[in-house]
Amino acid sequence: DWKDPSAVIPCLQLMKEQLPFPVFLNADIIAGPNNFTSPFDPTTFIHTCTTLYPWGILSIGWTVSIGFASSYTDNHVQHMLSFCKDINEVTFPVKASWVQTS
User: Consecutive 10-residue runs of the chain (102 residues): their mean pLDDT?
Assistant: First the structure.
């Protein structure tokens, strides 16, 4: 679960050498409910992961806050899907307590 974009490339290079099998590559790449911004550029994160560790499974999510009740909107989902057109395998981690109201 990357929090800092500068850690992605060194980690992927190390993983490529030592983990030649699929693992989840997780980061919150776009702003979610309550508009907490992400330090990641979504396009760069996806391209970097799929290029340096092509057998990884992207697990891309939205930034969320702890303690604030909210929900995901159609706009959140559509924005995320706009980055996923060419991805074969992807998961979307969500905050479980918000799913029912989304």
Answer: 97 95 96 86 97 96 78 90 91 76 66
| H/E element, 43 | helix 42-52
Q: Does residue 29 contact residue 66 with C-beta atoms inside 8 Å?
A: no
For 35, counting Cβ atoms within 10 Å of its Cβ (0-12 exposed, 13-18 middle, 19+ buried), the class is: exposed
Beta strands in 32-99 (DSSP E): 57-63, 90-91
In angstroms, the CA 53 to CA 12 distance is: 6
Terminal CA-to-CA distance of the chain, rounded, Å? 23
Rg of the Cα trace of the chain? 14
